[in-house]
């Protein structure tokens, strides 16, 4: 791929900094495969009208492109995956990842057939679950929510490790892109993969500033996921404090960014019953004497208290 298409070095110092590029997914054939019969399994509460959804998403893409002012301001995740699949090792890695991450799907029985698919066929399988042989797989309509696939902190990126079977293939998909697409060749040393026995999704991580991040312990991000991410961020980035918010393990607040988010550097939008009403659900995670293998969790009465204690400013 031409050098000019290489991705710029990551640098996300806060949730409200200007964006240079975003990764999105315009709803496609996979969304049309959501039905009343499989909607719950696929984590959908309703059936989208696909054409209307595509039109609305196209408007969003145009807004991104106009705001950023670059031809490559918007990257489509399926286009990135298709380009990565041009390489034999990327297709092999993707199939191996599915077999390892989802043993209950018995993809191993079709390993040779899956690895024999060409790039277009494998992309269709990755998004719709459909292949020219009777393998059992689900479509990936949740690919629409690219926020959850990874989280960029400073110059590093944390890959997701989905908690649900419906989203597990997406974790393999994004890992394949970061490790095999030429755009990301220059930043691969800064890609962080978490242990297999934890869960983490990007919607649970918010970057306050270069020293502080928030991570929600939610129905999608486990305590182990929070601690593993904290160790990596404290060891490898400029982050000094990780604030953990213990959320109810319920769908109405599945991610931290659904109940708390930044509108600008000094303004937050919150869901009061959880963020302001709840107490004793927030902890500041820090390395003891600089040793990230030895973490200390300091309880704080509220998220407001925690933010004020580590930033030194009134919230």
How is the largest sheet built, in terms of strand order? Answer: 6-7-8-11-12
Shape descriptor: globular
Could you describe the largest sheet, including whether it forms a barrel?
A: 5 strands, mixed
- Total of helices: 10
* Proportion of residues in β-strands: 15-25%
Tell me how many strands there are: 12
> Can you tell me the number of structural domains?
2
Helix fraction, binned, reads: 25-40%
Instruction: Provide the structure class.
Output: alpha/beta
Termini separation (Å)?
Answer: 46 Å
Instruction: Give the uncertain stretches in residue-range form.
Output: none
What is the average of the pLDDT values? Answer: 92
Overall radius of gyration: 20 Å
- In N-to-C order, the SSE pattern is EHHEHHHHEEHEEEHEEEHEEH
């Amino acid at each position: 791929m031409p050098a000019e298409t290489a991705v710029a070095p990551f640098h996300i110092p806060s949730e409200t900094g200007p964006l240079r590029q975003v990764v999105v997914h315009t709803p496609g054939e996979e969304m049309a495969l959501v039905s009343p019969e499989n909607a719950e399994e696929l984590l959908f509460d309703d059936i989208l009208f696909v054409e209307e959804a595509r039109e609305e998403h196209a408007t969003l893409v145009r807004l991104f492109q106009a705001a950023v002012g670059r031809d490559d301001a918007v990257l489509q995740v399926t286009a990135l995956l298709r380009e990565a699949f041009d390489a034999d090792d990327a297709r092999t890695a993707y199939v191996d990842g599915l077999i390892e991450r989802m043993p209950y799907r018995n993809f191993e029985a079709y390993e040779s057939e899956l690895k024999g698919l060409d790039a277009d066929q494998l992309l269709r399988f990755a998004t719709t679950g459909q292949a020219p042989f009777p393998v059992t797989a689900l479509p990936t309509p949740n690919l629409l929510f690219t926020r959850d696939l990874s989280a960029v902190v400073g110059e590093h990126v944390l890959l997701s490790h989905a908690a649900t079977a419906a989203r597990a293939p997406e974790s393999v998909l994004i890992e394949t892109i970061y490790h095999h697409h030429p755009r990301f060749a220059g930043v691969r040393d800064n890609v962080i993969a978490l242990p297999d026995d934890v869960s983490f999704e990007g919607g649970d991580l918010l970057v306050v500033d270069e020293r502080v991040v928030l991570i929600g312990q939610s129905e999608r991000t486990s305590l182990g996921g929070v601690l593993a991410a904290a160790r990596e961020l404290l060891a490898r980035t400029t982050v000094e404090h990780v604030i953990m918010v213990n959320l109810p393990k319920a769908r109405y607040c599945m991610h931290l960014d659904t109940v708390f988010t930044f509108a600008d550097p000094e303004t937050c939008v919150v869901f009061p019953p959880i963020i302001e009403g709840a107490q004793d659900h927030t902890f500041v995670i820090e390395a003891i004497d600089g040793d990230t293998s030895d973490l200390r969790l300091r309880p704080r009465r509220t998220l407001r208290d925690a933010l004020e204690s580590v930033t030194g400013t009134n919230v």
